[in-house]
């Protein structure tokens, strides 16, 4: 895994505070991460989130690991400590996920939520901001696995211009500083661009992990 000082991955600055790190995970790391996510999904099955109010289903299936998980249903978007269907706590974050955060986040506290998005072929995600967290000081770290996607990024206002960039399996995007609240979304997948997920998910597609700090770290007053 290329997160150490002398192994800095090739980085592309997409915006002030937004870095695309290519090939942070090599094929062996990607396979290890997929094996760990298979266990996560066995304990916390993928569910279909729904839009607040309209109850329209997302095309992306989701699950989570870590102390908190992001969910969406008619009542709204939120973080909660349990799976919306099984009622059980989310499984722990795999060690590899925590190592990625430690190596790349530049933030002294651990992530509290790791959202696992599964894009079947044809799935997409509309332009949005990640703003259900209390703590915007920590970056959001996003890891891509499986099919390449066309990722759209803009500024911090919906009307700001956007650009698209391809995210391949093993790439990591860091949204930090002025880009922490940047609009982003997934226009489409490039079909059959990877076979990484085939043994697990026969339709193939793409998995994206986003690690987030949710609450402000507790600071003891002096
Ligand atoms: C997200 O914004 O939750 C997912 C982004 C991605 O799939 O790359
Ligand atoms: Fe997001």
Major β-sheet strand ordering: 1-2-11-8-13-6-3
Globular, elongated, flat, extended or rod-shaped: what is the shape?
globular
Name given to the CATH architecture:
Sandwich
> DSSP strand (E) fraction?
25-35%
As for the CATH topology, it is: Jelly Rolls
How many domain units? Answer: 1
Overall SS class: mainly beta
Mean residue pLDDT = 94
Bound small molecules, by name, code or SMILES, are: succinic acid, fe (ii) ion
How many H/I helices?
A: 2
Sequence of secondary-structure elements: EEHEEEHEEEEEEEE
Q: How many beta-strand runs?
A: 13
The main pleated sheet reads as: 7 strands, antiparallel
Distance between the termini: 39 Å
What does this structure look like?
- Helix content is 12%, strand content 32%.
- The chain has a single domain (11-212), classed as Jelly Rolls, CATH 2.60.120.
- It has 222 residues and is mainly β.
- The protein has helices spanning 27-43, 95-104, and strands spanning 11-15, 18-21, 60-65, 69-73, 76-80, 113-119, 125-128, 140-146, 149-153, 163-167, 172-175, 184-189, 206-212.
- It is globular and about 55 Å long.
- The strands form three sheets. Strands 1-2-11-8-13-6-3 form a seven-stranded antiparallel beta sheet, with helices on one face. Strands 7-12-9-10 form a four-stranded antiparallel beta sheet, with no helix packed on it.
- The structure holds succinic acid and fe (ii) ion.
- Fe (ii) ion is lined by residues 128, 130, 184.
């Amino acid at each position: 895994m290329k997160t150490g000082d002398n192994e800095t991955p090739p980085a592309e600055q997409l915006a002030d505070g937004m870095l695309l790190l290519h090939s942070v995970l090599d094929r062996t790391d990607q396979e290890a991460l997929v094996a760990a996510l298979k266990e996560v999904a066995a304990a916390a099955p993928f569910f279909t989130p729904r839009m607040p109010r309209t109850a329209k289903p997302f095309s992306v299936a989701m699950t989570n690991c870590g102390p908190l998980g992001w969910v969406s249903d008619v009542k709204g978007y939120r973080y909660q400590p349990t799976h919306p269907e099984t009622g059980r706590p989310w499984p722990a974050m795999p060690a590899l996920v925590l190592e990625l955060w430690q190596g790349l986040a530049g933030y002294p506290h651990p992530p509290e939520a790791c959202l696992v998005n599964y894009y079947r072929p044809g799935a997409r995600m509309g332009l949005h901001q990640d703003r259900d967290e209390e703590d915007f000081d920590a970056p959001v770290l996003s890891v891509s696995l499986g099919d390449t996607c066309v990722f759209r990024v803009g500024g911090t206002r919906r009307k700001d211009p956007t650009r698209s960039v391809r995210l391949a399996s093993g790439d990591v995007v860091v949204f930090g500083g002025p880009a922490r609240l940047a609009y982003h979304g997934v226009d489409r997948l490039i079909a059959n661009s990877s076979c990484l997920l085939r043994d697990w998910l026969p339709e193939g597609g793409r998995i994206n992990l986003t690690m987030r700090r949710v609450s402000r770290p507790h600071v003891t007053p002096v």
